[in-house]
Amino acid sequence: MSILRPFLSRIVRKGCLTVIAPDGSRETFGEVAPGYPDVTLRFTSRRGMRRILLDPRLGAAEAFMDGEMELVQGDIMDLIGLIRMNTPWDRGAKLKDKGWFGRRADGLKTRLGSINRRRRSRANVKHHYDIGNDLYRLFLDDDMQYSCAYWPRENMTLEEAQAAKKAHIAAKLALAPGQRILDIGCGWGGMAITLAQLEAVEVLGITLSEEQLVLARERAAAAGVADRVTFELIDYRDLAAREAGRFDRIVSVGMFEHVGATNFETFFRAAANLMTADGVMLLHTIGRFGRPGATDAFTRKYIFPGGYIPALSETLAASEKSRLIATDIETLRLHYALTLRQWYARTLAHESEIVQMMGDRFFRMWCFYLAGATAAFEYGGMGNYQIQFARNRHALPLTRDYMAAAEADYLRLVSRSSFGPSPG
Questions:
Q1: What is the mean pLDDT of residues 246-269?
Q2: What pLDDT is stored for residue 417 in this prediction?
């Protein structure tokens, strides 16, 4: 227990964390506090305890995945939440900057870990998105939106919140009949199909996931919009060389996190070149509330190799070099936390199917991923940004009123009663 005592006694002040060592000895850290969980964990080996000291997040994840750390009271969501609640990003404490070495180390890890050339980008996408559509069906909404939902009111279902997200984004695109729209990182096609159902537009969705491509095409055909919605397996950089100036609107939801810090300027230059002179883009991305940082070792190794969560500052700095005007910026602070809790609950509800499909270790890894992500959005420095860009200052109305009016109309249309259940 002496291995972990200094570390845990410093971190856990509110809420109770009881640790049972492999020899049966136990120690409790913290004290009971309203709103804080009471968690008991047991280590089955001393190696599991040492792993956490070497790298708290990766070590805890691998100890949990390998059965060297077991939850006796509470679950992994409670454990990670307890740690994060004791060290919230927005805690109001005295601010201290990292030293020169810490800043340089973070910068180096970020740059080296996100050099996403075309071949590596495909491999990274395959690692996460081509593990099987059947897995994603078990925890996503009916429309298979694998990105932050939008929660304008309490007690919404995940399906309602994802429909609200699509209406929210569509309104910011200022759609009009006859427009040609590009969806970069189209997933399983839900956004592209919905846009074509909302307005008489043509949509091209692009992805690097073969699994997503097949299902997106099937869903477009089943929805009756395959004549106006097409999907292609292509890198955005290659499309920019082929389709310059062809798109009135671009939407990208949850893809920018995979671009990599070294490619931010390339991404925005490609987007600008793909748009018409009056083009508009809506970028929806996870982002850091603070300054640029680094992707943690667990996420790099197991979840999103090559991924990097951008700070707003570096996102805008990269876009400015392509003369893109940031015409509207919205910060979604807790919306992803609400979404992730829904995904986590659905994952737990389908434990037997996921274990049969992917194995016990994968199931524990997936739970750790969703729990860690939830805590990052509830207490860490993560949020979501929706940034509207225009190439021309005259491309959009002078005020934001048009967004609210369009969103209200679209929200009625994207309800289940209007479109029916999403195919797939």
A1: 96
A2: 47
Q: What is the pLDDT, as a whole number, of residue 423?
A: 46
Residue 95 is given by DSSP the state P
Tell me if 37 sits within 8 A of 73, measured CB to CB.
no
Q: How many CB atoms lie within 10 A of CB 356?
A: 10
Model confidence at 209, in pLDDT bands (50, 70, 90)? very high
For 299-316, what is the mean pLDDT? Answer: 92
Locus of tokens 């059965």: 67
In 149-301, beta strands by DSSP E: 180-184, 202-207, 229-233, 247-253, 275-288
CA atoms within 13 A on the CB side of 285: 29
pLDDT surpassing 70 at residue 358: yes
Please, which residues have CB within 8 angstroms of residue 93's CB and are 6 or more apart in sequence? none
Q: Which two tokens stand for residue 34?
A: 């309203």
Q: Count CA within 13 A, CB hemisphere, residue 80.
A: 24
- Which residues are CB-contacts of 184 (< 8 A; sequence separation ≥ 6)? 206, 236, 250, 251, 252, 255, 271
Q: For the CA atoms of the chain, what is the radius of gyration?
A: 22
Q: Say if residue 125's pLDDT is above 60.
A: no
Contact 146, 136 (CB under 8 A): yes
Q: What average pLDDT does this structure show over 294-317?
A: 92
Q: Which of 63, 59, 69 is nearest to 17 (CA)?
A: 69
pLDDT of residue 105 exceeding 70, the answer is: no
Q: What is the DSSP letter of 281?
A: E
- Which of 309, 329, 326 lies closest to 373 in space, CA to CA? 309
In this prediction, residue 5 carries a pLDDT of 87
158 token code pair: 């995940």
- How far is the C-alpha of 254 from the C-alpha of 340, rounded, in Å? 14
